[in-house]
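Assess this today:

___
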Amino acid sequence: MKFDVGPAGDVGLRLVFSQSPKPSLTYSLLALQSAARRQFSDALMDSIVSYTTLTLFFHPLTVDRERAQRWLEDQARAACDSPDSPDTERNTVTLPVLYHPSVAQDLEWLAENQNMSIDDIIELHSGKDYFAYATGFAPGFCYLGTVDERLATPRLATPRANVPPGSVAIADQQTAVYPCSSPGGWRVIGTCPTRLFDLNSDPAALLCVGDTVKFEPISMAEFRAAQDTPAKQ
């Protein structure tokens, strides 16, 4: 497993592994992130795991970047020498989803485009577990994979100006839930009543990199009753 470590702006270092994203690699990156937090303590301002990368941001003037880079390279090399996934805490979150054309503007389009019934779409999308590879775009937005190839569909050619909060959507072989109202170009196939980001909660984001996410189909009555209820973990 090849890797590269280089600068990320004025105060950062980025570790990049040269392979396709997969859960075992994410677990290794999460273990490296934990090791960096222990090693650098308060000198580390922030750290981000995403797909095949780990980025570390340091307080200016508190860390010798060359020494930090050598440390990160040594840790990455050790991870390459250990083929087994490290013992990382793993969390499963179940999200209720209402799959219905009245709340999912692309559900009927996707069924027709893929030559399937709506029930087929629901069964395929909710019938597997998804892995959280990255967060970003909006607070609480989590990129989940991998969608069944029979559901894979490109983004919209022109993004919508407003996608409602809770929208469950697909882009290529990724799926996600929009945590807040925002522009977006993913194909919306359902809606989730669970709040994914809440500043009054700790942590504020419900989903984290490394989580497993399950989607559970619900009825319209269940959707109305479940709005803003906690997710099952």
